[in-house]
Design brief:
The protein is mainly α. It is about 45% helix and about 0% strand. It has helices at about 10-20, 20-30, 35-40, 50-60. Helix 2 (about 20-30) crosses helix 3 (about 35-40). It holds the Pfam family HTH_3. This is Helix-turn-helix transcriptional regulator. Keywords: Plasmid. It comes from Metabacillus sediminis.
Length: about 80
Amino acid sequence: MWGSGKKRSKVGKFIDKQGYSQEDLCAASKISRNTISKICNDPDYIPSRSTMKKLLNAIRKIKPAAEVKDFWNVKDYWDI
């Protein structure tokens, strides 16, 4: 199983459950490998608004109803 024994964020757990890799997410979102790694492995990391937008656009190809609040606990999140 992918990610076994690793601390994962909600995004990391989501892609693991869907059978996608971080490389797949990089290609779909056009976000750098380092940033995707941080997003998937650091549950406390909150990316910039533009990065969230790119990432959500990629995730919505898998789950069209995905929202910011599904992945990040931000008080004042933006409608992306």
